[in-house]
Design a protein that fits this description.
About 35% of the residues lie in helices and about 20% in strands. With about 260 residues, it is α/β, with parallel strands linked by helices. Helix 3 crosses helix 4. An eight-stranded parallel beta barrel has the order 1-2-3-4-5-6-7-8, surrounded by four helices. It has a single domain, classed as Aldolase class I (TIM Barrel, Alpha-Beta Barrel), CATH 3.20.20.70.
Length: about 260
């Protein structure tokens, strides 16, 4: 069975922000609370976006035990690391209410993910299809779906994210083709859409896809202030409320039976 769709926000900086956004959504809507982590799990290496990657010791202040929340680390591991060991370390520093990973690395080791999922079967794993992963399979939708089949029963979600935090719009045509191929081969895998989302463009970017697919969404860069790159809670609340209404609207439309 496909996992529940969520509305995702990546780059939370405090528990207070999480509380405000959670309170702004209907209680039955699943919220994905995302924080970045780059490099070694116990060393702070935020790269160019320090506000999106809290220091490891601050993660338990952000990943809190709210109902209907998925607390997810968006993890960019070191090249050639022991991914299984680093995932276990990251789990420890993230605190007791951590739920899983989005793995921002091209086609992570199936063996490492299997070991991790065997040890922590309830943990959520999302495979990120970002530009480096797509380049390996020449951005071919059929090849993408076929390659994803090696993660069958290990991954819970897949996110097609050609923006990778840069605020680029969703390529709707490519995304539709790819989702169709994934859905055909992996009907139980949750589909996540991302790319430059905010309250002002959510329907334009997502509407055509939501007519066909039960999607989760993930938003990041367009919900931040420039040049500080600080998360704007007001922008986030407007976006999640708009997106919740869209998900409900198109869910109703997809569930309507045709009139004979």
């Amino acid at each position: 069975m496909r996992p529940r769709p969520y509305i995702g926000i990546t780059g939370f900086e405090s528990g207070a922000q999480v509380g405000a956004v959670r309170a702004a959504l209907p209680p039955d809507r699943l919220l994905m609370v995302g924080c970045g982590m780059r490099g070694h799990p116990t060393s702070w290496a935020p790269d160019k976006w320090p506000n999106r990657c809290p220091r490891p010791e601050r993660l338990p202040e952000i990943f809190l035990p709210y109902k209907n929340v998925l607390n997810i680390l968006h993890f960019t591991p070191l090249e050639e690391c022991d991914l299984f060991e680093h995932m276990c370390l990251a789990r420890e520093v993230a605190g007791p209410f951590f739920h899983g990973f989005q793995l921002n690395t091209p086609w992570p080791s199936f063996n490492d993910l299997t070991r991790y999922k065997t040890r922590y079967p309830q943990s959520v794993i999302t495979i990120a299809l970002q530009p480096d992963a797509l380049e390996v399979v020449e951005s071919n939708s059929v090849r993408i779906a076929r390659t994803l089949t090696m993660y069958d029963r290990v991954a819970d979600y897949v996110i097609l994210d050609t923006s990778a935090g840069e605020g680029k719009d969703i390529d709707t045509s490519f995304t539709r083709r790819t989702y169709e191929e994934i859905e055909r081969l992996l009907p139980h895998l949750g589909l996540v859409a991302a790319g430059g989302l905010h309250a002002g463009n959510a329907e334009e970017q997502l509407g055509d896809l939501l007519r066909q697919f039960a999607l989760s969404t993930d938003a990041e860069s367009k919900l931040r202030n420039f040049p500080s790159d600080l998360l704007d809670t007001g922008k986030v609340i407007r976006y999640v409320q708009k997106t919740d209404k869209l998900l409900r609207k198109y869910e109703t439309q997809r569930n309507l039976e045709p009139v004979s």
